[in-house]
Structure formats: C-alpha cells, structure tokens
C-alpha cells in the first residue's frame, strides 16, 4: 500500500515519497518478522484466510484525500486499537518463549504503526489544504466507504491515535464520549 501511494500520486513533494518509501521498508520488515513467527509455529503465509480490506481500499480510493483518510487514518489506525486488545489477551495465557516472541513483535509493530498513521495524517492535512477542504471531511469519507462507522470505538487507543495526529475532537466523536 505504501508503494502504491508513492506510485499512484505523482508531482508530490519529495518528502511525500520519502515518507511512503520508509513506510514500505517498515512494512516489509513487519511481514518478515511475522512470517518468521509463522514458520516457527509450523505455518506458512496464506495458510489462514485474512481480510483484504487494504487491497479493496487501494482500488476504491483514487484521490490522495480519500486514500490518506481511508488507508492510514482508518484502516491502519484500527490496528492501533486492535493490537493492545490482542496483547491483553496474550498476557492471560501461560508464559512461554514463543508467546513472548509474538508479544515483542506486536509491540514493535504497534510502535512503528503510530508513525505510519502519523505520516498519513500529515498527508491527509496536505490533501485537505490542496483541495481547500476542512479536515472534518474525514468523517464524510469514512462514512462513504465504511457506513458501519468506527468498529472499535469503545476500545479506542486514544493515546496512540493522539500521537498519530488525531485531535481530541475527532477521538471524542469516534468514541461517542470525551476521551481527552
């Protein structure tokens, strides 16, 4: 997705491409880390069916504004909410070396994903400014593609999302309560 973002949107400032190439490098490393864990567990990538939301989003979002709203600020940010819940469930299991490797890997990915979402937030703001739109258009865009709204609203990782650029107003709207 990061490489697609770099390729799909020409004539952007150099640091746009620097950002997405850096994200791509991180994502490749994340994949390799997870693939190694799968191998250690006796599995292969593709053994378990997963959603293809990111691929679908890449096909549907054809403008920079929509891409940055949907991919980093919605789909990737959902991972900021889901990963702490997964880590919490893993902590309840009996400790062993493999479980610790999984937890360590997820913590690294969570930490780095905050920066990926933050880059998306920066470029979402850039696109809003370029199109002379308020950043509040974010919710219209998300409603267009995901009318079910924010699935993990009650488990919103407000701290990670704030670090990634979300405002308190946005977070409160998503959570349907004051969160900061």
Write the topology of this structure.
Layout: H1 2-8, H2 14-40, H3 53-60, H4 64-91, H5 97-130, H6 137-145, H7 158-163, H8 168-175
Helix pairs in contact: 1-2, 2-5, 3-4, 4-5, 4-6
Under CATH, the topology is which? Ferritin
- Mind telling me the CATH class? Mainly Alpha
Compute the average pLDDT: 94
List how many beta strands DSSP finds: 0
Strand content: under 5%
Structure in words:
This protein is 71% helix and 0% strand. It has 180 residues and is mainly alpha-helical. It has helices at 2-8, 14-40, 53-60, 64-91, 97-130, 137-145, 158-163, 168-175. The protein has a single domain (2-175), classed as Ferritin (Up-down Bundle), CATH 1.20.1260. Helix 2 runs antiparallel to helix 5 and helix 3 runs antiparallel to helix 4 (64-91). The mean pLDDT is 94. The protein contains eight helices and no strands. It starts with a helix and ends in a 5-residue tail after the last helix.
